[in-house]
Amino acid sequence: MYELNELTKTYETKRGTVTALNKVSLTIPTGQMVAIQGPTGGGKSTLLQMLGALERPTSGTVTLGDDELSKMPDSRLAEIRARTIGFVFQGFNLIPTLTAQENVETALAPLGLSSADRKSRATAALEKVGLGERLTHHPSELSGGQQQRVAIARALVKEPTVLLADEPTGNLDEQTRDEIMELLEGLWRDQGLTLIIVTHDSAVAKRAERRLTLKHGAVTEKK
Amino acid sequence: MFGTYLYRELSNRRKQTAIIAAGMALAIALVMIVNGVAAGVKDAQATVLASVYGVGTDITITQDPETPVEGEEGTAQQQQPRFEFGADDGETADGTTAISQSRLTSGIASTTFDADALTTAQGLDTVAAATATLALTNVSFSGEVAAPDVTTDQGTEQGAAPGEGEAQGGRGGPDGAGGSAFEVDTFTVTGIDVAGESVGPLTSVELVDGRAFETTDSDSNVVILDTSYATTSSLAVDDTLEIGGEEFTIIGTVTSTSSDATTASNTYIPLDTAQRVADLEGQISTVYVQAASSTDIAAVQASLQTALPDASVKTQEDLASSVSGSLSTASDLVGKLGTWLSIIVLAAAFLISVLLTTSGVARRTREFGTLKAIGWSNGAVVRQVAGESLVQGAIGGVIGVVVGLLGILSINLIAPVLSASAVATTVAGPGAGQGGGGNRFGDAATTAAATTDIALQIPVTFGIIGIAVALAIAGGLIAGAFGGWRAARLRPAEALRSVA
User: Fold this and answer.
1) Residue B195, number of CB atoms within 10 A of its CB
2) Torsion angles phi and psi, residue A200, rounded to 5
3) CA torsion angle for B46, B51, B52, B57 (degrees, to 10)?
4) B15 touches chain A (CB under 8 A)
5) pLDDT band at A32 (very low <50, low <70, confident <90, very high)
6) In what order do the strands lie in the sheet with A16-28?
7) In the prediction, which pLDDT does B156 show?
8) Cβ of B440: how many Cβ atoms within 10 Å?
9) Residue among B458, B431, B456 at smallest CA distance from B445
10) Under 8 Å CB-to-CB from B344, ≥6 apart: which residues?
11) Mutating which of A56, A62, A81 best tests the B interface, going by the most B Cβ atoms within 10 A?
12) What is the chain B residue with the closest CA to A167?
C-alpha cells in the first residue's frame, strides 16, 4: 500500500520555482489498478517518479508498505526498485545492443541470481507475454508492440508488487494498445499487482478501478 | 550479465572502440619504441664507457687540471715535452744528421695526482675493489737535419762563387740543400696495475695473442698492444717498441670484448714502469672503483668526495655525458624530443579516450537511467562503464605492444649506426715550438679515447612490455573513472525526464 502525505515537489528553474506537486495526500491500497490523467506539465510523471523511488520529495512523505521512501539512502532505494517496483515506459527504454532475453535479464542482474536462473526466468517471462519465439531478437528487429511486451516482461520478471507504467501505450496504434492493455490487466489480476498507469488516453484510463486527475500539482478523484 | 553487456556494447559500438583502441595503441607503441631506443642508447653508451673504463667500474676518480697562472711555469707534469739535441747527437752521413727522441708524458691538459688516493678509496668499507692507472702519451720525434759541420764549412766558404758548394758535395740535409725533415709520432700508453684487479680498463678486453700481465711483470719493460694499433703499426708479439726512450718487449695483443668498440689505449704497460719512465713516481691519473653494492653508488661517491675533496669523483651516469658523437645526439633526441612526443601522444590518447567515454555515457543517458530505474546500483553502472573502458584500453594495449614490437624489430633489422667517442683524459692536440739550440715540440695527441661505430640494438625487455601494459590499464582506468563518475552522477529521474 502506498501512502502519500502532504507530498510536495518543487524544481528550481531559470524562471523561478516550479511546483510540480503541491501537498498531495493519497492512499493507494495494495492490488489496486489506478489511472492518473491530466494535462501535460500537471505533475503526472513527477508523481510516478515519487511512487517509483526515483525522486525524493521537497516535503511530505511517501510510504510503500513499511518503507518511508523519502528518507532512505540511494542504495536502499535502488534495492527497493530492484525487488519491489517494476517500470514500463512510453518509449520502451530497451537497450538496443542486447537481445530480448538479455534485456529482460538486466532486471535480474541486481538480484544476484546465477546466469542459468536469469536465463530461465527471462525466457519464462517472455513466453508469458507471447514472445517465446523472439528471445534472440534485438529491439530493432521487433515491432513497437513487441518491444513494449519485452519491457513488460522486464518489469515483471522479478515478480514485483508494484507496476508503474508511464504512458505504456503512448507510442502504439489502437489495436496494439488494446493488446498491451489486455496483457497488463491479465497480469494485474493474476499476480495481484498494484498497477499505476499514467496516461493521456481515456480509453486506457477507463479500464482502471480508480481514476485520478493531476492538475497544477493537485490531485482530484474522478468518480 | 556484466560480460554479456560489455561484449555487446563493444561489438556494437565498433567505431568508438576502434578509435579509442587505435589512439591507445599508437601511444603505447610510441612509448615502447622511445623507451626501447633509450635503453638501446644507454647500452651503447655503456659499451663505449666500458671500453674506456672497463667492466664493473661504478665510479672513477680523477683530478681536474689546474688553470696555469699567467707568467708562471706549469708543474713539471704539465709542461710540454721538450726534445733537446746536443751537437753530437744523432748519426751523420753524407752531410745529413738523423736524430730521434721519444718522450713519455702525461700531457699538458692532464693532471696526475698522488697514489694515496687509491689507498684512501680501498680503505672505504663500501668499496669492493679499486685500482689505479696512469694515462700517458708517448711522443716520438725523428728527423733529418743538415750536419753541423756542413753548415760550418759553408760558413767558411762564404766568399765562394754561387754553386761552388754544391759542386763540392752539396749542403747536406734530406733535400741536399741544407733543409730539414721531421716526423712526429704519438700513441697512448696506459700504466696498469699488473696485480689484476677486478676493475679497470683491461676488464673489457680479451687476449688475442701472447699473454696477459703477470705479477712478475712489475717494473719490467713489457707492453701489451691494442690489436688495431698493432696492425696499423705492423707490430706483433715479441717485437720491440720504444716508449719514453726505452725498449719494451711486446708480450700480447688485446681487443675489446665489444665487437663495436676499440680498447681504451693503444698500449698498456705496468703501472710502476710507466711511473718510472715518465718520471712520475707515485703519481696516477685515474682510480677505478667498484662499489660493494650497486644501490650504494651515490653514497660511495659522496664518501669518496668527502675523503678526497680535491678530486673529481664521477659515476657511470656522470660519465655518460662524456660520450660524444651521433650516439650523443641520439641520446639527446630520445631524451628530449622522444620523451615529449611520447607524453603528448599519450596525453592525446588518454584525452580522446576520456572524451569518447564521457560522450558515450551522455549518449546512453536513457540506457543508464533505465538501468538505475530497474534497480541497478550506482556501483554496478560505474563498473559497467569502467569495464568497457578498461577492455578498450586493453585492446589498444595488445595492438600497441604488437606494433611497438614490430617497430623495435624494424629498428633492430635496420640497425642504424651511431658513432661515439668517450675520452678518459683529454690532452691538448699537437702543437709546435722552436727552441734555440735544439728542437722543442708542443704537446701531442689525446689519451684513452675510444671512438667507435655502434649499431643501435633495442633490447626487448619485460620492463618495456610491462610499461605498455601498465599504460593500457591506466588509460582504461582513467577513461573509465571519468565515464563512471559521469554515469554515477546521473539521477534516474533526470535521465528518464530527459528522454520523456
Assistant:
1) 12
2) -90, -20
3) 60
4) no
5) very high
6) A16-28, A2-13, A59-64, A67-68
7) 45
8) 15
9) B431
10) none
11) A81
12) B500
From A53, A128, A52, select the one nearest A88 (Cα to Cα). A52
Among A74-88, A106-120, B306-320, B470-484, name the one with the lowest average pLDDT: B306-320
Residue A73: all three cell numbers together: 539512502
| Residue B363: count of CB within 10 angstroms of its CB | 11
DSSP helix/strand/coil, B30:
helix
Instruction: Go through chain A and tell me how many residues it has.
Output: 223
pLDDT of residue B438: 34
Question: Quick one: which H or E segment has residue B407?
Answer: helix B378-414
From CA B263, how far away is CA B269, in angstroms rounded?
14
With CA atoms as reference, report the closest residue to A46 among A184, A183, A216.
Answer: A216
Residue type, B6: L
B500/A82 CB distance under 8 A: no
Bridge partners, B312 (sequence order): B62
* Nearest chain A CA: its distance from B369 CA (Å): 9
pLDDT at res. A179? 86
Higher pLDDT, B209 or B434: B209
Helices of type H across B281-338: 297-307, 316-320, 326-333
Assigned C-alpha cell, B12: 556494437
Q: Kindly state the average pLDDT of the residues B30-52.
A: 75
Q: What's B67's DSSP letter?
A: P
Residue B498 has pLDDT above 70, yes or no: no
What 3-state DSSP class applies to B88? coil
SS3 content of chain B, % helix, strand, coil (to 5): 45, 25, 30
- Partners of A96 on chain B (C-beta within 8 Å) are 12
Lowest mean pLDDT among A24-33, A43-52, B116-125, B435-444: B435-444
Lowest mean pLDDT among B190-194, B253-257, B272-276, B397-401: B253-257
- Of A97-101, A152-156, B2-6, B60-64, least confident by mean pLDDT is B60-64
Mean predicted confidence (pLDDT) in B62-68: 71
Say how far apart CA B274 and CA B221 lie, in whole Å.
9
A158: Cβ contacts below 8 Å, ≥ 6 apart: A82, A83, A86, A107, A108, A111, B375
User: Rounded to an integer, what distance in angstroms lies between the CA atom of residue B189 and that of residue B445?
Assistant: 11
Yes or no, beta carbons of B12 and A96 under 8 Å apart: yes
pLDDT tens for each residue of B139-187: 888 888 777 665 555 444 444 444 444 444 456 666 667 777 788 888 8
Cell 525524493, residue located? A56
d(CA B196, CA B375) in angstroms, rounded, equals 78
Nearest alpha carbon to residue B146 among B169, B183, B174: B174
Q: Give me the sheet containing A210-215, strands edge to edge.
A: A85-88, A162-166, A194-198, A33-37, A210-215, A218-222
pLDDT at B425: 44
CB contact under 8 A, A107 and B377: no
B497 touches A at CB < 8 Å: yes
Please give the Cα distance from B176 to B155 (Å, whole number): 16
Q: Is B365 an interface residue toward A (CB < 8 Å)?
A: no
How high does pLDDT run on average in chain B? 76
For chain B, the domains span: 2-45+328-416+457-499, 64-310+422-455
User: Looking at residue B238, what is its pLDDT?
Assistant: 93
Task: Give Cα separations from B408 to A64, B330, B347, B461 (angstroms).
Answer: 65, 16, 22, 11
